[in-house]
Amino acid sequence: MSTHALIAVAVTTAVIFLGVSVAVWAVGHGARTGGGTLRRRFGPEYDAALARHGGERKAAERELSERLGRYEHLRVSPLPAAAREQYVARWTGIQERFVDAPARSVADAELLVGELARDRGFPSTTWDDMADALSVHAPRSVHGLRELRTASVGGRSREVPTEELREALVRARDLFEDLVRARPEDHRPQRHARRGGPRPAVNRLRRP
């Protein structure tokens, strides 16, 4: 066999090997970011994306995969102890004012959570960017921000029932707790498990 023929065979073999390697990587990558993995990673956000896309699984998973690509490696900044105490005090104040001014309290809570998210390093160019980034790092609690947003915006154009506002503030507590942790690796403060023990302040909001 001539030298040129040997070179041609070697090049062809290398191209085939490279193609097989790429295919194997693609299959493995797809398995890691496939529907099952995305559903486990995003939890309720997976169902929300599915609903937004009218049940089109591929479209929903493409959106969630793109979010991962943009925000998975976002660096969440530590929160100094003094800042943490200030945020907790402000959140407590919002809860205490809820009884007298529920709509204003929900609007203030939305602004506070947004400010806290920015301090932790989440993007704030648009509200959607912030929510998408939070959905990657706090997928189990980001719905609290979405409900705050819905209730707050709704309160500007119509009279939102007080119970709806209360529920939005209650559900936002989990996200607030996730964001206010001193360091990203800290665990969320444990709620009191005993029925007769003290309850979180947000759950003491009076019903109308």
TrEMBL record:
It comes from Streptomyces triculaminicus. This is Secreted protein. Residues 181-208 are annotated as: Disordered.
